[in-house]
Amino acid sequence: MNLIEHFVDGKVFKGTSKRTGKVFNPATGEKSSEVKFATTDDVNKTVLVAKKAFINWSQKTPLFRARVLFKFKELIEKNSDELIKIIVSEHGKIYEDAKGSLIRGLEVVEFACGIPQLLKGEFTENVGTNVDSWSMRQPLGVCAGITPFNFPAMVPMWMFPIAIACGNTFILKPSEKDPSCPMRLAELILEAGLPEGVFNVVNGDKEAVDALISNRDIAAISFVGSTPIAKYIYENCAKNEKRVQALGGAKNHCVVMPDCDLDQAVNGLIGAAYGSAGERCMAQSVAVAVGSIGDKLVENLAKKVKALKIGPGLDKKSEMGPLVTKEHLEKVEGYVDIGVKEGANLVVDGRKIKIKDYENGYYIGGCLFDNVKKNMRIYKEEIFGPVLSVVRAKDFNEAISLVNDHEFGNGVSIFTRDGDTGRTFTSKVKTFFIAYRESIEIIVRDQLIG
Ligand code: NAD
């Protein structure tokens, strides 16, 4: 059995823990590896390594650090097929989805290559009488990242390339469900010339996370994952006087106006709701059908959802892969059961499908609900699976209220042929897309968070 350890100080670190977690291939349901769960002692040792490495790394010129990242970018490109296959083998998403996510991560590495320019400070002469003012951008020290299962390469790469380029050292605690890709990235960045101890990976669960939060030598923590854990991390890092950012779950709406290009809206929704089997914080899991468009939208969506080809992620014919674990599959199926009990109309039922030769894989077909209401749990809660809920709204204003009133709005899109309607659409959520005729316009509000 393959045993995944930790990666500390430029080498495999076995740690002291006897506890392990199981890693599965979601396509077959077979256990592929066990992953070590770090103890508090293992984490504290890793922090000391990263603290020591900070002394030299923070003194390197930004140009030196950028060169390492350039080389890392090259190595990711060179090894992309292997990295993508690792993602597919532990997460389950299809090859093309995994490839797209790796490219999104790579873009952050490319951004980090520009760090000499980004780190420039400012100088103001005579800000007060005979007083000049400088601002400098300096590294913080040891930083840590705690990441979710759904993007095992991309989300870690939102964090560590920038932190390292700025002169910090970094400890990553990836998801215990798919830890192999982050471990491979650690090897590649070392091969790129990063000094030992600058980037480290500790595997584990709550014990490792709590050890990171309570360690006084960690200056900042970045978290991406579910909302309850995001709150826990945020509150406890704040108590321990750390800089923290914590991004949580989401329920994204797509407003479909009666004047839209229906084919475009349906195709857009199929990709946005069922891509990566809906395991995306930016998945569009709610379609708000405005006015007369509802029946036709549901009819056209149903045809495409039924036609989705479900299968293992490495099969080129597959359009949607399995979910990450058996527990997650049961959770998503449970939500579909709840929706039926709540009285929503299940137009396409993807539960209990069996894929020939992959009978033990964690598969669910696309599910489509119509006439979902505001008070239903399937509307209020994040399902994180291939389940799209259609809500009917009588007019544009009702659609806007639905979007703005939802607790977990992360992004919203609107399909309309009327550019003015799109532009006047005001929303509290972070990311905003308008689609009309053949073009898609993207307006990013605040920060783009996933
Ligand atoms: P999760 O919250 O279960 O796990 C995230 C991380 O927290 C993992 O590393 C895990 O080991 C750790 N963790 C889990 N339970 C913990 C506990 N009790 N105490 C301390 N640490 C704990 O999330 P997940 O299921 O891996 O990922 C899916 C979630 O991530 C979804 O809700 C999704 O919307 C969200 N997500 C958000 C964004 C964004 O940008 N906002 C991006 C991707 C994913």
Question: What is the structure about, briefly put?
Answer:
This protein has helices spanning 40-57, 62-78, 80-91, 95-112, 115-118, 154-165, 180-191, 206-214, 227-239, 262-274, 294-307, 326-342, 377-380, 396-405, 419-424; strands spanning 2-4, 6-8, 11-13, 20-25, 30-36, 122-128, 131-135, 142-146, 169-173, 199-201, 218-224, 243-247, 252-256, 284-290, 345-348, 367-370, 387-393, 411-415, 431-436, 439-444. It is α/β, with parallel strands linked by helices and 450 residues long.
Describe this structure in words.
With 450 residues, the protein is α/β, with parallel strands linked by helices. It is 40% helix and 23% strand. It contains 15 helices and 20 strands. It has an 8-stranded mixed β-sheet with strand order 15-16-17-14-13-18-19-20, sandwiched between helices. A 5-stranded parallel β-sheet has the order 10-9-8-11-12, sandwiched between helices. Strand 18 (411-415), helix 15 (419-424) and strand 19 (431-436) form a beta-alpha-beta unit. Mean pLDDT is 93; it is low at 436-450. It binds nicotinamide-adenine-dinucleotide. Residues 146-151, 155, 173, 175-176, 205-206, 209, 224-226, 229, 232, 247-250, 281, 382, 384, 449-450 line the site of nicotinamide-adenine-dinucleotide.
